[in-house]
Structures are given as C-alpha cells and as structure tokens.
Amino acid sequence: xxxxxxxxxxxxxxxxxxxxxxxxxxxxxxxxxxxxxxxxxxxxxxxxxxxxxxxxxxxxxxxxxxxxxxxxxxxxxxxxxxxxxxxxxxxxxxxxxxxxxxxxxxxxxxxxxxxxxxxxxxxxxxxxxxxxxxxxxxxxxxxxxxxxxxxxxxxxxxxxxxxxxxxxxxxxxxxxxxxxxxxxxxxxxxxxxxxxxxxxxxxxxxxxxxxxxxxxxxxxxxxxxxxxxxxxxxxxxxxxxxxxxxxxxxxxxxxxxxxxxxxxxxxxxxxxxxxxxxxxxxxxxxxxxxxxxxxxxxxxxxxxxxxxxxxxxxxxxxxxxxxxxxxxxxxxxxxxxxxxxxxxxxxxxxxxxxxxxxxxxxxxxxxxxxxxxxxxxxxxxxxxxxxxxxxxxxxxxxxxxxxxxxxxxxxxxxxxxxxxxxxxxxxxxxxxxxxxxxxxxxxxxxxxxxxxx
Length: 453
Fold this sequence. Notes:
Elements: E1 11-12, E2 21-26, H1 30-44, E3 49-55, E4 59-60, H2 66-71, H3 76-79, E5 81-82, H4 83-89, E6 93-96, E7 99-103, E8 108-111, E9 114-115, E10 121-123, E11 126-129, E12 132-135, E13 140-141, H5 149-152, H6 159-178, E14 189-193, H7 197-215, H8 223-226, E15 228-232, H9 244-256, E16 260-262, E17 267-270, E18 274-277, E19 282-284, E20 287-290, E21 294-295, E22 314-315, E23 321-322, E24 325-330, E25 335-336, H10 350-368, E26 385-388, E27 398-401, E28 404-406, H11 409-428, H12 430-443
Parallel strand pairs: 1-11, 2-3, 2-12, 3-6, 12-24, 14-15, 14-20, 15-16, 22-25
Antiparallel strand pairs: 4-5, 7-8, 8-11, 9-10, 13-21, 17-18, 18-19, 23-24, 26-27, 27-28
C-alpha cells in the first residue's frame, strides 16, 4: 500500500524551545510508555529535550492483561492509564494518531488522520519532526492469509478488541439463557486458534469467567454441559516455545478443566458458523479468537528503506538502532534483534520491551551529550505466566518461570504480579503503586468477580 501524499502538509510545530532535542516515541505499549515516562521525568522536566508520545488509543492497558479484559476478570477503569493526563504529570507531550509513513531525510513521521466511529474527522493528517525517533508499535495478529479471519474472528491486539470480545461473550450467555428453544450447534462454544501463552491463558480464564457469569442469575443454562472451549494448535503440542514437560502438564490441566485441545490441527477458514480445519471438518462456534501468531503492521514493511524481515519487524543493531539509520531506534515486538553470539532473536515479551526501554533511555541521554549509545544485553529472567488459575478442583495448579514448572501457588502468583508491578512502577513511581495496591486490597471484596457490562 502506497504512503499517502504528505508533501503539502507543513510540519507541526511545538511550543518548546526550537533548540531542544526532539524525541518522538511511536507506540504507548509496555516499552513506549515506560520510555516516555523515564525521559519525561528527567529530560522533559529539566527542559533538556522535547518528548512526544504518539499512540492511536487514548488509554493504555498492559498487553499481557488483555486476555483478562476479554474474559471480564480485569477492572479496566482501575488498571488503565489515560495518556493525556499521564503526559501532563510526567512532562511529555501526548499526541493521538497512527504513524503511516516516514521521511528519514527530513526526519519526519507521517500521522494518519484520526476519525470518529462514523468517519467524521477529528484531527487531520499531520507531519511531526524528530531528532531521535523510537518506534515501539508492538505487534498485531498474523492471519497467514486464511479466509474469514478478519471478518469473523477477534484478535487480542488492542484493548478495543478485548472489550468487544467480552461484550460478545456476555451477550452470548444472556441470549442462550433467555431463549426457549434448544441451543443450536456451536452456540456458547468458543474456538481459540493458537495455543501459545495467550491462547492457553485465555482458555483457562474463559472457563472460569463463563461460570462466574452464570452465577449471576443465568440459571436456565447448564454451563458445565453446554458451554464449550476448543483450543487449536498447528504444532504437535501446546506451548511449543516451552519445554515438553511444561507442555504436557499444561495439556493435562486444560483437559482437566473440560477444555478440548486439538494439536497438529491447522485452521483453513473462519465463517459465521465456526472454524474449518485442514481435514475439512467444521468446528461450530459462536465465538472465535485468533491467537496463532504475530507480525507488524503492513506500513512497516517498507518504512523509507529501513531493513525489515518477513514479518515486517525492523532489523536493529545491538544498540537497538536500525541497521540503516542511527537516528531511528526500535524496541519491543517490532524490533528484530539478534545479539552478538546469539542465534535466535530477543523474544517478543513485555519483559524484553521493559529492558529495551531502560537501555534506550540511557542511549538517548548519551546522544544528546554527544556520546555513543549503550549496547543492549537481554537478561533472561524467565517467562512468568499465570497460566492456570483454576484446576479441576478450583485451585491454582502451575506457574511458569523460564523452563521450570512451579507448582507452588504463592510463588507463581507472586512472580506474575511482580512483573506487572515493575511496569506500573516505571510509569507511576513507587508511591502511587503502593497506594493503588492498598486501595485495591480494601475494595476487592465489595466488587463483582467479573465485569458484567
């Protein structure tokens, strides 16, 4: 897709001193928001640089929590961050919009227009100048060109998609509970395509949340008998990125919850009726979630000559600068980084994005001082995942740390929470995190277990 013509649009001027070094961060996810906060609290506050964060959303929710938003078990109001208020408190500038082009010669990014749901314009196309550009746009679901995915399945790329799935889930339960006739094939069934961490976590959350929904007066439906979840994986086992021991234990526990797991099964199309697999069988389903892989937005494939791989991820040096332009950094999922001495790239995890943000913060400060950037070294602290909160007996069964299985409930939960608290500490500071934690402990028992609207 060709980049729209921006040649007639003047560069947006800021009210900052024109002599300040302009840092523009595209994407307010785990890495981008942390970097904007760190730079704002130091360089921005002291008028050493102008810091701008661009994101197409108005609020931030930590992406590893999106499956909890989808299932209704996360309080969005309590866990989200409003960019515009956060920017004011942390001395950076927030601009709403989506980047759709780059001019490296002029050091400008192109920003698509922002419109309301009905297409009515809010903000026109813009051009924003930079001295240092950090691209942190995250990733989107990879549909592999399979027919019907865009039209009939939901990915978990954005907060809006997770909220939309949650609304469909609740409506499906209400509809089934109110109807007099027998449920048709696929009704109250959910098919999740992709059994990586996201798919497995979502399957476990949905098993619990559908029964929580039923406990609020939906007593015409036997959810244990009629509600179904099917998890499909093209590889020979679930959680293929982790060890076989973990995969086997995870499979045992999913099946213990009554979740159908089908490995070595490839989806070939998605329709309103369900998912068709390679054998020609159609799995009826009212709800379909696509979690089969990730890639970058299409505009990243030819970003004014920057090097990218087949998934549109920007190839970067060990300093996280792009290979063809030292003024452009990339962090998080959109960065394809193979460090010296390694054969595989840095994983696409929130933990990696957090570490990248720390290094790029120091590198930008060094650039302003005329010093070389700092090289990135990934610290593999393991994969902390709260994969199974509920087993066959209703108790937490396992957590994951790296390639080890941990069956102690307290430790698994602690490590998962600490990773999130580390992110919140980076964007809010210690005092607010402590106060928020205490407040949530006090009000937790007075709120419903699940979002019902």
